Amino acid sequence: xxxxxxxxxxxxxxxxxxxxxxxxxxxxxxxxxxxxxxxxxxxxxxxxxxxxxxxxxxxxxxxxxxxxxxxxxxxxxxxxxxxxxxxxxxxxxxxxxxxxxxxxxxxxxxxxxxxxxxxxxxxxxxxxxxxxxxxxxxxxxxxxxxxxxxxxxxxxxxxxxxxxxxxxxxxxxxxxxxxxxxxxxxxxxx
Length: 190
Hints:
Blueprint: H1 3-6, H2 13-37, E1 49-50, E2 53-54, H3 57-76, H4 78-102, H5 114-132, H6 145-150, H7 159-185
Antiparallel strand pairs: 1-2
């Protein structure tokens, strides 16, 4: 059993994941662009500020990479965008804790200040919230596909739920059928 087989697809929640990833990616790209425009050196820790936060070229590069990854997640959408948002949000929060620990120390090569740490916490929680929206709650509505996946026995009489189960089992059986087809013919080509 793989996690991707257990997650519902093509649900209206995918729009939340997409817009959340795109919004946060654009914010990060704007911050990175301002950092590049100031033409700082790569690991300069002189305290130059952009939009109230200290920055250098290394931080701008990281912001660009993460911003582009979030935009790619927004383009791909679906469960991928949700999972990416949760992972990136968690990394932002961890980064905030790490940089809180290294403030005013030589290990602070990205020149984080307290405003950067706060931005990292807020942005991390925002991105993670976009990713977890509609997936993680004790009060999900009964038409939510994540609730349906967790409560098979209660959706047994529901024709829509039965259709979802058939689609899920057919999707899981397809790779197995392709492997068996190649083994039966003996050519291994599938």
